[in-house]
Amino acid sequence: MNLLDENIREDQRSLLRAWGLSIQQIGSDVGRKGMKDEEIIPLLHTLRDVTFFTRDLGFADPKLCHAHYCLVCLDVRKDEVAIFTRRFLRYQEFATKSKRMGAVIRVSHTAVSVWRRNAPIAKRVHW
Prior knowledge:
Elements: E1 2-4, H1 10-18, E2 23-25, H2 37-46, E3 50-54, E4 69-74, H3 81-90, H4 97-100, E5 103-107, E6 111-116, E7 123-126
Parallel strand pairs: 1-2, 1-3, 3-4, 4-5
Antiparallel strand pairs: 5-6, 6-7
Helix pairs in contact: 1-3
């Protein structure tokens, strides 16, 4: 499951769906409107194999790595979320759920930083 944070704009969600990506969003499809950040991680624990996309860089914390989800923190403008989400999902290193699970990932224009469970440092991937 690909899950968008509630604060990601509707036009970005619509664009992802128009491109054929299966996308759900907190507050619309999963969870409830107005969920606090501290409620999101427990929600992700109840789901299986979820990739959570957010612009909230507070989630870019290696302590949040978990085998059953992936956190993707998009360090991009609000109107670039769809483009970078699709680009991320198509990138060979992250193209399948099994390649993404257990990671906290920070995506920017120039690079991707990946923290994996039980890894001492982040791996930097240039794209």
